[in-house]
């Protein structure tokens, strides 16, 4: 009887509207308080993470990623590398290695009969404060010599590096390159890449000419072995004999119309000079900007860098030699 009494109770229509409105306001207030509590909790958590300089491994990996920078080669002044990048002779690897919140990205790489060049993008790795070592291997055999290139600073702590090194003549057309970028102090992190290399495309556009000619002055001798025209460069291989006390030198290369081709790098190895104490002979590999066409003649001048004068001038024919 009591339940029936309760069920038979009716409320005025206006009172029902007031009651429902109060219930809705209560629900809305509860949801707002709950949402506000979640926002505050999330904010405190984030402040805790960043205020203590801590991030989970997943978060740290995201923040250490190198953003897209396009072609590294196009950011530098080497006209040869700019040319091969624009004409599609380079390989964009998309490879990144992260170690202890530092990332090295192998952005771009190029290979032909005279050189291996690569462009790197670094984040969390400072090439100025921590000296970097670059090691190139073919089947665990070290193939890299000295490197030439440059460093460029970018916003957001990004460093771009473009480097090139000459390669031995017995290096195969295709092989798997192992590249290690290694810090020499502090954390001593090592960033290792394995890259399949092929120079098939660049070989099609490469022409080599055996010169084998000697040029002499009073106490100096230049023996030009070979000249190569690749998509990225004009390369001259030569031996230079000079007095032991001679200072540093530079080179100038001219095509037949007198136009000078810019020198990009010069690397050398000392030969066995045990039979002479008054002179020394070194073998050199000089890399110049690329030439549009193979000229009939070239002139290579040896320049005294201190007095800025020509020490020895050589002129030789190119197209009459058999490639």
Automatic annotation (TrEMBL):
Keywords: Membrane, Transmembrane, Transmembrane helix. The chain crosses the membrane at residues 35-57. InterPro entries: DUF4179 (IPR025436). The keyword Membrane applies. The keyword Transmembrane helix applies. Residues 33-123 form the DUF4179 domain. This is DUF4179 domain-containing protein. The lineage of its organism: Bacteria, Bacillati, Bacillota, Clostridia, Eubacteriales.
């Amino acid at each position: 009887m009591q339940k029936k009494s309760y069920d038979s109770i009716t409320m005025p229509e206006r009172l029902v509207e007031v009651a429902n409105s109060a219930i809705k306001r209560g629900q809305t207030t509860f949801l707002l308080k709950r949402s506000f509590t979640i926002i505050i909790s999330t904010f405190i958590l984030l402040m805790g993470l960043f205020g203590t300089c801590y991030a989970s491994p997943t978060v740290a990996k995201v923040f250490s990623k190198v953003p897209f920078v396009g072609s590294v080669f196009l950011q530098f002044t080497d006209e040869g590398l700019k040319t091969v990048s624009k004409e599609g002779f380079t390989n964009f690897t998309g490879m990144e290695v992260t170690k202890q919140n530092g990332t090295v990205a192998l952005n771009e790489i190029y290979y032909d009969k005279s050189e291996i060049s690569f462009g790197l993008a670094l984040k969390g790795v400072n090439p100025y404060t921590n000296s970097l070592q670059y090691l190139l291997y073919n089947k665990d055999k070290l193939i890299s010599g000295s490197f030439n290139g440059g460093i460029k600073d970018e916003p957001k702590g990004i460093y771009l590096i473009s480097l090139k090194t000459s390669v031995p003549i017995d290096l195969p057309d295709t092989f798997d390159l192992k590249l290690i970028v290694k810090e020499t102090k502090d954390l001593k992190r090592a960033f290792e890449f394995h890259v399949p290399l092929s120079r098939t495309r660049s070989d099609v556009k490469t022409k080599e000419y055996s010169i084998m000619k000697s040029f002499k002055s009073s106490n100096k001798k230049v023996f030009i072995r070979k000249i190569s025209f690749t998509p990225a460069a004009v390369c001259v291989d030569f031996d230079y004999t000079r007095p032991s006390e001679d200072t540093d030198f530079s080179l100038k290369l001219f095509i037949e119309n007198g136009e000078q081709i810019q020198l990009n790098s010069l690397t050398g190895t000392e030969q066995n000079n045990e039979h002479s104490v008054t002179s020394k002979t070194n073998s050199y590999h000089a890399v110049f900007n690329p030439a549009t066409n193979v000229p009939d003649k070239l002139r290579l001048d040896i320049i005294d860098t201190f007095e800025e004068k020509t020490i020895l001038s050589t002129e030789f024919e190119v197209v009459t030699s058999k490639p």
